[in-house]
Amino acid sequence: MKDNILKKEFGKKDVTRLRNLIKGKSGERTGNGIGYTKKQEFHKEGDVWSEGSRTWTIKDGIKENITKLDNFKNVSVPLFCPECNNIMNKQLDSHYYRAHRKCLNCVTKFETQLKHEGKWEEHVNETYNKEIDQLIKEYKSFMKDKLSESNEGFVTESGEVEKWVGGINLERADEALEEGIKYLESLKK
Fold first, then answer.
1. Which pLDDT band, with edges at 50, 70 and 90, does 151 fall under?
2. Fewer CB within 10 Å: N-end or C-end of the chain?
């Protein structure tokens, strides 16, 4: 029985560790570290900075590496719905995620709640008006691009280069743009 006697003494660090475990402070430090640490930089939400050859940002409180594939991150569908944390495996979940950033069940619950509160028509009209505003924005961009193109020559289907004489009537183009925007504005509810 004398072989069971503890021959090792506990050091101060071991005793401190046991006390912390008993008190429920399992993450507490038991000793002081010595060494070199570089000056820490603290960043806020949306900050963009470089460390070495990488560029970083903070999104939703998480440090993320900015890569060439960031656009793909927005297109790809996550495994879990960000709102309800359920698995996104239904056939329509990917389509609803791209449009609403949540799964079909969450969109259905949201729309049902709107109908129950009597705000459904307002939501439909607001969505419709946002689509028209986006269409107006795209129309203005399209017209700006077309007006900035040169009309020095065009290549036909047969490969011949045609040179056209004349220019764009900017006043008429501006009038057509304004008429188109006025028509689109009249479609709003």
1. low
2. N
